[in-house]
Amino acid sequence: PCKDVVKHLPNTTCIGWLDGDELEVAYALMDIFCFPSAVETFGNVTLEAAAFVLPLVVDEACSGHLVTDNYNGYRCTADDVEAFYQAT
After folding, report:
1. With contact defined as beta carbons under 8 Å apart, do 64 and 58 qualify?
2. Is the pTM value of this prediction over 0.85?
3. Cα of 13 vs its chain's centroid, Å
4. Which residues contact 66 (CB under 8 A, 6 or more apart)?
5. For residue range 50-81, what is the model confidence (pLDDT) as tens digits?
């Protein structure tokens, strides 16, 4: 999404590209991991977030195979904004 739109979302922090120790600290500070992308081929970031035992909210077509509803997170249908909202 457009950076100007994202930076105005409530309770959302956009921190840009991270790797190494910075990425590890970012995952450790998260309360939840929301990954609404429907175009990723696998969703490695979902695996990384799962390694930090974060609740996962993902698009079912992308990382849905990595999530068991009500166990480690929720799978949502693409473009269903309300489902993502309710899951968080």
Report:
1. yes
2. no
3. 13
4. 43, 46, 47, 50, 56, 58
5. 999 999 999 999 899 999 999 999 999 988 99
